[in-house]
Amino acid sequence: MFLLNIQSKVPIFEQIETQIMRFIETGVLAPGDRLPSVRQMAIDNGINPNTVAKAYAKLEQDGYVNNIPKKGVYVAEVKQTRMIDDRVMAVMKQWREEGIAKETILTCADAAYGEKTDAEN
Known about the structure:
Elements: H1 12-26, H2 38-45, H3 49-61, E1 65-68, E2 72-75, H4 80-97, H5 102-112
Helix pairs in contact: 1-3, 1-4, 2-3
Keywords: DNA-binding, Transcription, Transcription regulation
Organism: Stecheria intestinalis
Domain HTH gntR-type: 10-78
């Protein structure tokens, strides 16, 4: 179910978190669906259980899942617009960290949506 790239610069817990968010957004995971246990996810992917627990904790903190002690981790009811906003913010933060200027992002966004920039007028 999960494709993790151990060689990636993106931490494993973030890869898990991102994939679960995408699964929720696309309907692969629906509200009330149970996620694999921390132990099972770790075994299936050959990773440390603490890594999985960190991803699940972040998802719970952000409201994407509910952790019910002794029962498991379940997908929460999440508004679609919130998930999209979170994904856009994550990408934009990554661009900022890579040194891409805000002006470049805005120019590209204008071009993508067919809007002319001041330089083109």
